[in-house]
Amino acid sequence: MLIGNGSMLVIALVFAGWTGAAIWALVTGLQMRRSASTARRQLRRLTRLVDSGPAVPLIVRSDSRIEGPEKVARWLGLAKLPPYLSELAQEDKGLPRDALDALGKQITTAQKSGAPFETAVTALGSNRRLRIEGKLADPQTIAPGAVLLWLYDATESETRMAALADAEAEAKRAFDALSGLIEAAPIPMWFRREDLSLLLVNTAYVRAVGGQDAADVVQAGQELVETIDGLTPMAVAARAIESNAPSSRTVTTTIAGTRRAMEIVDLPIRGRGVAGYAIDVHDLILARQATDRFRDAQRDMLDNLSAGVAQFDAQRRLIFVNQPFVRMFALKPQWLQDGLEFERLIDRMREAGRVPEVRDFPVWRDEKREWFHSAEPKEEVWLIPDGTHLRAIAQPTPDNGLLLVFEDRTEQVQLASARDTLLRVRTATFNNLFEALAVFTSDGRLHLWNTRFGAVWDVEEGVLAQHPRADELLKAIAPRLKRPAQISALREVIRAATLDRVQRAGQLVMKDGRVFDFVGIPLPDASALFTMIDVSDAKKMEDALRERNEALVEADAIKTRFLANMSYEFRTPLTSIGGFAELLASGVAGPLSEQGQDYAKAIIDSVERLSAQINMVLDLSQSQAGTLPLKLELTDIGALLVDVAKGAAGLAGGRNIALELDVKGQPGSAEVDRARFGQAIAAVVDNALRYTQEGGRVLLLGDRFRGKLRIVVSDNGPGLDARAQARALDGVLQADEAGGKPLQKRSGLGLPLAKNLIEAHGGRMELMSEPGAGTIVTILMP
């Protein structure tokens, strides 16, 4: 088929029209697409803007249909936004029914009157607090009769506002409490404005300055402290503001009419003013002064102690050391001037050889550093190389320091060692004594005993080791006595020694026949020593000796009676012999030759000597028997001594012996039997003359000595030894024992008779002699 040119033209035009329409449609579509994309982006921005804004819109149409973002559903705790307003109230989600009804009424009012409203509700599902602002919507923009609700989440803001309200109330209460505290404070307190004038003072301030009330004090500007050293209180406050630091000073001022030391503190408050307070430190200063005095007195006292004391502060520096410590550890004064550290002090002590010898000294020193951190006091014993024993006490102080006390226990250790030795010696001595010993304490308990004590009473050591009371012990041993009732005597002796502090003794007999003497002796520590000794053998010997003594006494009495009788019997024939001899000598029977005269004279002399001896024996027997008659009378002793000297002058002259009499001491008078007393003195003088060599010297002295009559007869003869002195007073002294021969043979009864005669007068006679130094006989009379 052939198409003409016209047709081709029409086709070309149609095709061109279609192509142009397609291009226009394409361009228009692209423009519309761009416009839609822009609209969508704008919608998303608006949606994000609404979502990020503080309020969420909700449209309520006239038919109660609602429109809004899903954010509203989330705020109300709903899964999605319902279509109608009434569906916002569900069982436990959405809005409360009463709140929703009230909101519906407000929406209806707004639709009718166009008046805006505002309310607040709380969502049930989320407990979110919502503030709702509603107004009539623009009918051209949304729809006629619609109401636009703006929902605000007021949960956080209301919580914050409530918190702020609470904080404000709490701050107000705190401020009121602080104000009340400041007002009730016992110390003066004040506050200055920025111009340093007083703004506020408390009651204590008013009382301190003697004002009427706080307003008057502030109005008058009464200052608590006077101007001191040209500085007023306001000037001090100004300096505090300039330095922006608290200012503290201690001044003396008048408080309530009394001068007191006060610590004034000014506290600058930037941009507000200066606060101040005053603390009464008067008593504190006095207490510090008293403490300083006490510390000085204590340190003086520590210097006088025998123990060494050193004190360290919290930095382990030496702050005090007493003189005994310095001497004990040989410290030099220059070492103590710069606060010697603890470790350095230990080093110094080691250099002086005053610390124990240890294998690792640094470790040992570090261990001692732990004393500062110990919770309890530490105690050690230091054995110094020179043998000194030191007791070290480390006492931590409350200020983290340390107090060291060293006590020299060397003497105590030595004494303890000596005591232990003495105790061992005492125990050994006690256990080896023949006596049975026991010590009872003041409460009557057995404290100490020896083995002999247990053996005597047959008591086991285990029983004694329980320290029984005396009553229990005595009750157990009573059956061992011959007479058990004697146990009361033992009990009384122990009681008297422990309680009455009186020594008592006694004797007891055991069942086996043994005899014991016992005694209770009070001891200085209120205890008592009970001792028992077996006197069985002594008792038997005593009984035997008593029987023998009674026999001897009886024999002596028989002897005395015999001598007395024989003396009387001898006198009769001697008298006859003497009488006949005198008759023969006088020539009654005729003249005698010269030899006969000598015989008669010898007979008369022998009769006289024999008569004198018989009289002396008779007197001695009577004096020993206590039957010698005495005729006491007041006698001039000086005159009696003169008579004795005259009577012995012949014997002294015959032996060429110087007899001296000394009565210048005025012996005075005494109640004596003149004849017997003179006989005693004459016997002593006669004995001295007869046993003194020719050319010797005898002294007879009479005087007063210590209120007593004293007569002394001394010679420079050969003297006597101790054995001869004892025999001389017994009347059995022989001539050769006296160191020489007497002038005539004598019986040796002169001194014993003189001794008995002196003792019969209540006096005593003493004899002192040494071989080659003579003899002294002293007679002392009351």
UniProtKB/TrEMBL annotation:
It catalyses: ATP + protein L-histidine = ADP + protein N-phospho-L-histidine. It is an enzyme of class 2 (transferase). It holds the Pfam family PAS_7. Gene3D superfamilies: 1.10.287.130, Histidine kinase-like ATPase, C-terminal domain (3.30.565.10), PAS domain (3.30.450.20). Keywords: Kinase, Phosphoprotein, Transferase, Two-component regulatory system. Residues 565-782 form the Histidine kinase domain. InterPro entries: HATPase_C_sf (IPR036890), HATPase_dom (IPR003594), His_kinase_dom (IPR005467), HisK_dim/P_dom (IPR003661), HisK_dim/P_sf (IPR036097), PAS (IPR000014), PAS-like_dom_sf (IPR035965), Sensor_HK_Regulatory (IPR050736). It comes from the Bacteria. Its EC number is 2.7.13.3. One of its GO terms (molecular function) is kinase activity. PANTHER family: HISTIDINE KINASE, TWO-COMPONENT HISTIDINE KINASE. This is histidine kinase.
